[in-house]
Structures are given as C-alpha cells and as structure tokens.
Sequence to fold (213 residues):
Amino acid sequence: MNTDQLILTLVADLKPVSHHALIRRLCIGLLLGTAGAAILVAVRLGFRPDLVLALQGFHFWMKWAYTMSLGIGSIFAIERLARPTSSSLHGLWLLGLPVLGLATIGIVELAETPARQWLSMWLGQSWMMCPWWVLILALPIFVSLLWSFRKFAPTRLRAAGAAAGFAAGAWAAAVYCLHCPEDSAIFVLTWYSLGILLATGLGALLGSRILRW
Fold:
C-alpha cells in the first residue's frame, strides 16, 4: 500500500467535527464540575445566611467579578492548550487586569480605613481555611475537566494541566463566594488567589502524568 492509499484508508470513515465541539465539551465539563462544587458548599459549608442581602451589595459582586473573570479567561487558555498545535497564549496577559482592578479597590479600601484595622481586613475570620476550601472545591471541577480532556489532544501537558487547575480554582473560588462572609478586597486578593494558585500548581504537577494520549 502506498502513502496515498494509506491516507485514503485512514480518512474513509472520517466524520467532520464542529468548530465549536472543543469549547462545547469544555463548557460541559466546567458546568458539571461547578455544579458539584456548589453541591459540596450546600452540603458541607452552607450558604452565607445573609446571601440575599449580600447580592444587593457591591462587595459580593466585586468577588464574583474577580473570580469569574479569571474563570472565563482560563477557558481561553485551555481552548488553546487542548489542541496539538502550538497556539499563541499572548492574550493571557489580560488575566492580570482583574488582579490589578481588585488590587486598586484594595488600596482604596485601605486608604479609607484606620491602619489599626488593616490586619483584620487582611486576615478576616477565615484566612487559614479559605485557600484550602477553594482547593477542595476545585477538585470536582478539575475531575470534570479531565473528562473533557479525554477528547482533546494537548501536547504541552504541564501547561495544559496548570490551565485546567487554574480554571478549576477560579470557578471554585466563584462558588466559594456563596459561603464566604469576608468582603474586603485585600482578603479576596490574597486568600482566594492563593487557593487558585494551589489548584494551578496541583494541575501542573498532575498534567504531565494524566493528560497523556
């Protein structure tokens, strides 16, 4: 069999794939994992008792804007790293904008608050548990993303794992907002971000091992 015949044989039963198939499967994985994280919050942590009131205030939406913008940006990274081609990741610098925006809000809050209260704003009541809960809630999302990756063909496995971990951490942090009563920007910037970075590190560590195809 010559090369041309081999190629024709391989593509004989080839079915066209939708241009949106990858992003659709990715979103399904994120949706399933995020639902699992929300159920875990409801069963294990509980929603904050003043959630309805919090939804009417600035700080809750500030936290959601920060975490969800990182989550949406992570989809951009995964969509490129999930392909075998070397797609550009230059647009990832945009992920720094939510960090910069929240840092600006934090500086303004600190400037308007007496210095003796800065430490309590930074640590809140749950700083020791916040990053770890974000990491725990990221696990079902990460597992769902692994399901998504079964149909993908990443070649930069460590980077793809890190992107999946980052996405899991960002969406887990968004879900954690439903429980967490801490509202200062400096708290969110520090401890939520630390949880997201822990999930990113875990994804990078596992990526080279479990994303092989």
